[in-house]
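Office hours follow-up: a student asked to see two folded examples consecutively, so here they are.
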Amino acid sequence: AKALSVPQMRWGQPMHAMFWAVACALRAPLLAVPPSRAAPPRLGCHSCARRSGALLLAEHAAASERTVPVADQFGHARFQLMKNIEQSLVSITADPQQLLEAVVGLPGIATYDREAIMTYFQKRPALMVARTLDFLTAFRRVKAAWSMNVSTSSIDRGDVLREELAALGPLAVKVGQTLSQRPDILPEDVCIALKTLQTSNKPFPNDEAYAVIAEEFSAVGPIAPGLPVTSNCDPDGPTLFKSLTTDCIASASLGQVYRGEMHDGREIAVKVQRPDALRQCLLDGSVIILALKAIQGRYWNGDLLAIFDVTAAGVVQELDFRNEARNAAEFRRSLDFLGYVDVPRSLPELTTRRAMAMEWVHGRHLSALNPEEQMRMTYMSCEAVTAGLVLTGMVHADPHEGNVMLADDGRLVFLDFGLMSTVDEPVMEAFAAGIQCVLSKDYEGLVRAFIDTGFVGSPIEWRAQESDPWQRTHPDGDTTQVMAKELRERMEACPGGGSRFGALSIVLGDMGIFWQMYTPPYVILLIRTFLTLEGIAAQVDPSFNIYEVALPWAVQRALSPSTPSGVQALRNSLLTDDNKFQWQRIDTLIEQQQAQQREEREARERAAQLAVGEEAGAESMPAAGSARARLLAEESAAASPTLSVDADGHAQQATTPLSSLTTVLGSAGGATLRSIARDLDSTELLLRLASPSARPARRLAVQRLPSAGQRGV
């Protein structure tokens, strides 16, 4: 059209204008009147436009059969025009849903492609503008509600925020689910209001869910007795399920769940995706991408688009339930060694992109548990997730209250595996080192761990004021030491600095003004995971220390390194330069073990005294110090003998740094540790073991090595 001097078309002009330009391009060699002067035909509707487009093609085909002298230079151009016009007409008449699904690679496995998404929606700018206005309107409503006096206003700010997030769709709901676990970020009344987004979000109509189930599972007859017959199904045909609830029993960000029963008697949960979930998520993503492009490099020391790409890729994968089924099976296998983690098994024959059936789990969520059960479930959840972070490399990225259950038989059950994080070996080792450094207050080591994880660059850069350029030298000396000193001061001044991941996030956020810090793309989902998990733990036990729970796994990872730097670090921590054993390491482990055993014993004694004291009207005893000790104390004082025995068994399974040492020593992962042991000075080792000071170590060897050897075999 440009080559033929046809005026450029603007967005929003009638569809017939485009067809007129197409007609001019097709018939240019045959027209006696210049296209720019000819009056375009008036087409009344979209269907008319389609017919007119077809007529134009037919006319061109007929004209091409006549002998018309055409210059050679027009031959290739006309062929290309024909090809482009044909593709345009196909796009116009194609199923919009199929075009949208093609953006993420469907009907294959859904994958995220930023450029494909932006290309799709940039051709539909009206949608992006309207969606941006939706976000701005919601923001104004929430801001107005929050500006009112809480004590006098009849408007509940939490309800307003929840309703606006629910109306905005899946991505906004996920933000609300995370915020609902963070009373340190939002007021408690708002967090309570947002909790309904986890399992009681506004559902979509049942008829739409039935239609998705029938289509995805290729139903021949009714879905279940008593339910409406969907289109294209035989009312007299066989039912898909023996029974299915009329209404959903839970509704979250991307879908809702129905409870049913198979014809063979198996109880199942049927998860159905929201019909507009894919379109809504991709549209929201395109708006966010445009916003991030506008602020990229201005307000953040990192690639915001790369960070968003990681999150968006997770959401796109979550929109394909086939990914969720695979993730669930892999997650269950990765944590089999814990003995108490379980995942609902999906039914392969009833698992598709938009619907899936899985076994029903009899259990309860956190809000329905008694305090002792809440503490037990919280401890096990933190232990399982931190084990994934530093041992298996597979982490549940959305462990809010609605996705974690305590089964009636005591198992810890995780749900919803659409959003997962994977952690590489070097990063696992760096996180393990960082956890140990936080607990031991080794802030120089923590800075090195930040460098290894990509939070801090190498060399370290700083600036005196926000407007100053970054510098690689510091007037007070070595940048690592200076940064470590400031980190220590800030961590000690911040409430919960040595026990809460959220406190560390706050400290790093403040330091990021003066120290060059980054947010590696892989870490964004991990941050969400641990902020959510920590929020749950804080509700149950405000003094819960997530680093303390993670320490044994961190020790186990440090003792079984897989990278050259990790192997060298382990060797340096165990052997001196002349291959002599550093006995203080074993002494430290023994002291930790003895201190923990002593604390647990005292916790049980306090619990017993408390029970006696309550009968006699005595005051409460002081609380136990560690999370593990508090768990044991509460279980010992629990009223239900059955639950207490079961809970105590789970607590006893919890590993310790010392048990991590013996576990690794006799396992396949302990090859590096055993290799280092072969290099040590055996004469010095035997002489030291024979000395009186090594009596605890000898006792430890007698107790631990047989079981470690048995595990190795």
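And the second, which I mentioned at the end of office hours:
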Amino acid sequence: RVSSDTMRVTACLVVLLWGLVVAYDSQKEKDEEDEISKLTEDFELLEEPMPVLLLPGFASSRLRAYSSTKCPGNMLRFDLNDDVWLDVAMVLGAKWCFLHCMSLNPVNQSDPTHPRCRIRPDQGLDAISQLNPGVVTGPLSVVWKRLIDLLLNMGFIPEKTLLVAPYDFRLAPMQLESRDHYFTKLRQKIENAVESDNRNFVKRHPGMKNHVVSRGLMVIGHSMGNNIFRYFEKWIKYSMGVTAGKEWLATYINTFIAVGAPILGAQFSLQAAVSGLTFGLPITEYDARKMGLGYSSYGMVLPADPSHEDKRHSLLNNENRKAPIPVSSIVFPNGTEKAYNPSEGVWGLDIWKDIQEFDPWATYIQSYIINLYQSDPVINFEDSWRRPDVQNVYCVYGVNRKTPVSFKFIYPENGWENDWDTKEVIYEDHNRVYSDSGEEIFKYDPTRTNSGDGTVSYFSLSWCHTWMEERINITRIPQKDMYQQDEILLMRDTTIQDYVSTEIRTDQEYDTFFEERHLEPNGEIRSTAVWELDDIDHRAVIMEPVFLEQMSHQIHVQNNVVGKMEAQIEKMINTMISTISIFPKRGAAVVPTTDTECFWDYLHVKCAFPHVCGYYYKFGDYHLGMSCRLHKNHGSSIVLTEEDHKEVPCECMGGICYNGLCRYKSACKDSFLAPGLDAHWGRCTFAINGPDLDMLGHDTDTGAPPTSVMSATNASGKDEL
């Protein structure tokens, strides 16, 4: 029996606690808004930015009820359009009903029956921004909210220039297309956005109506969303043919940013398939495994060994060509223990065949691996992911977090059928590999080794280093507001071999940027970058300030350069229409006129436009780009280094310089390449100026061709530049 005084005190404490939680959540939300404002305050609002598409990861799309379901033995129910994933109240109040609705038939991945429950992915920004909105539970389920807020603050418009593509994260790619037509709809969504962007461009610049070159869109994928993009890229080529598919990708997708990509899989998928993964919910591992038994999507992220050897990847992983330790081991009821590697054990089905004697559920896993992955006509999932076939690729992930790399499972005595326990977990953490019991397995040189992001191993994440060419540029900067010049590592035109042989400081957290740009045989410029962010968690990477800072800067550089050149290019074309035959893509550069327009060029490891911008650090600068400022504002004259003098001098094609801009014959010391550009462009100093001409090639005073214009006659007798 509880006294009334005790009840009143308890009630007061509950109200006080609720008030504190509300106050904390409100303050946290305000702090996040202030942080987003800080990231965008240095930039102007973007007008008509390049469209961006967001692809969420596993369990990061809201699922809604597409049918009404009454929960047996409970007053609660799911009504049409109710949230199912993630409704925390239903997890607590009607657990069986929640688990039932979230499950799929393990034989064919159909919706559960008795009672029937049909759920499908929600649509729109809200479907990935917060999975469970609310004062208390909202912050616990925030996934993409901060990045979306940043993009909206930058001027992106929902469903016009800011798109999302939620999907049913329970299904294998083949089933996403057969049941939901997901990839067909995704292709249409991308085409609509890019074609709308092209129409808006023509409205702003009518003179270029017949000369529009699509700038495409930017795709940002997180975690398993990157595997979805990988499948989509292959599906485009499969459904359209390889040549037409490549042309489609070149037209509609300009940039792909892979955040936390499990390129060689992730060990958590084994834990989910064998013992169960609770996702942090108040359910048992057995319940979680039973719920996820029909989740054929696990196959997308099962651990895999590289299908081909790459020395760079081996160097970054202590000369390990394959996973350094078995990804799993099983202790059977008779006491014997067996270890499994990715190739034979997981994809070769050994582990599933061995445990099915004690675990009939293992047959379901074998079935979907064989039928939905090994038999998929679109892609060979055991062939390691090669560089996506788009112009610009960024691979971004956290490093040096405690990350599981192997699980040991045991069938407990007197346990339920199909019930495995996790006996031991082996982790990598910085340069150490050790078990949860404290036993040390490996210890590497701390200056040569990274660990994963808390979910995906470094062995898997770092495979995207193989997407770059051999010669790269590396920038490594401290992860803090203020740092000294000697704390920055700059390596230009180097290799991974040189990098791992260089003495690297490990006394603090760093962000390391690996970048390269090269010319393809077909004349296309391709750039690839890998960003390794110290101590950033897998799920939180898209919310971290360091990622948001770099993202906002890159997007502004891309869009501002494009936007400022559009008017100049249009004017050029209007004047040169009678003679020019090849029109540049949007994306050439103009010389900065303010400090804000200067930025850091990671490719050349210095401030872009070195003839007008230089590195001038000021207190409060929190990334290299902010320290790039105009020479003239800081009393400095331009001094070319010996290395600069060695570079190729700039020479305009055809000798033409118009309005201070020309297309260079080749890469030279002051040339610039922007996303979407297929040539080298920059400033020139010939005598021709736009206002002094009424027609290109004729002086307004004398009518004589200027000396800087050179023409040639081709075989057809037509003049060409």
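Two things to take away from it. The chain has 19 helices and 30 strands. The longest helix spans residues 4-40.
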